[in-house]
Specification:
0% strand, elongated
Length: 97
């Protein structure tokens, strides 16, 4: 099924599809797309490997930054809502590593 989705995005959007696949696969844990699948399918459509690498790298970089900033903001939100549980976890982590 994942291969069909990637195939559709590549066929419909080309390099923008590669960017979107890379962005979504690195910013979520629900749709991990292996990089080799993107490369193999894009080569089947005769896409330029340099542009594939560029758009894939750009999408992956922005996806990782998205995850980082969500985690950064989520930490503050978690501390505000569950302060007692966070303190308990910190004590446990300091004690047992």
């Amino acid at each position: 099924m994942l291969e069909m989705i990637i195939n559709f995005l590549l066929k419909s959007f080309g390099y923008l599809g590669i960017f979107l696949i890379s962005l979504i696969s690195t910013s979520t844990i629900f749709l991990p797309a292996p990089l080799y699948l993107i490369i193999v399918l894009s080569s089947a459509y005769g896409m330029n490997p340099i542009l594939v690498s560029f758009f894939s790298g750009l999408g992956m970089s922005l996806g990782e930054l998205t995850s980082y900033f969500i985690g950064l903001g989520g930490n503050r939100l978690l501390e505000e809502k569950h302060r007692k549980g966070v303190k308990k976890f910190e004590r446990f982590f300091k004690k047992y590593g």
